[in-house]
Amino acid sequence: LTERASPARRRPRRIWHAGEALPAGVFHMIYFLAGILAEAGLSFLGLGVQPPTPTWGGILAEGRLYLANAWWLTAFPGLAIMLTVLSINVVGDWLRDALDPRSRQ
């Protein structure tokens, strides 16, 4: 037996092209944001995760009852949703600008 591998026995190498894979991550961020907003909206309407589990939409729905006396019960979860969506959107835009040479013009 020889110690060299014959060409028929070689395994194909997997090559990962970062240039093709990374822009797809920007589109996945959009779907991630849509998931966050859908979960918050459905939980606010009572169609999402059941009440013992804390969700931003559920916290907004519960705080709605105390809005006149305790405005912060709805303001801070709403602010958290807004800042999360905005920050992920900014990161997605930055990635698109950094990875897509056509958008630099």
Features:
single chain, 105 residues, mainly alpha, 3 helices, 61% helix, 0% strand, elongated
Kindly summarize this structure in a few lines.
The chain is mainly alpha-helical and 105 residues long. The chain has 3 helices and no strands. The chain has one domain (28-104).
Describe the structure.
- By secondary structure, the chain is an all-alpha fold.
- The protein has one domain.
- The protein has three helices and no strands.
- Helix 1 runs parallel beside helix 2, helix 1 packs antiparallel against helix 3 and helix 2 packs antiparallel against helix 3.
- The model has no long low-confidence stretch (mean pLDDT 81).
List the helices and strands and how they pair.
Blueprint: H1 18-45, H2 56-63, H3 72-99
Helix pairs in contact: 1-2, 1-3, 2-3
Taking the alpha carbons of the first and last residues, their distance comes to 59 Å
Overall mean pLDDT score? Answer: 81
Major sheet size, sense and barrel closure: none
Class per helix and strand makeup = mainly alpha
* Total of helices: 3
**What is the percentage of strand-forming residues?**
under 5%
The backbone outline, from C-alpha atoms, is elongated
Order of helices and strands: HHH
Number of domains: 1
Helix content bin: 55-70%
- Per DSSP E runs of 2 or more residues, the count of β-strands stands at 0
Radius of gyration: 23 Å
Question: Residue ranges: pLDDT <50 for 5 or more in a row?
Answer: none
Assembly type of the chains comes to single chain
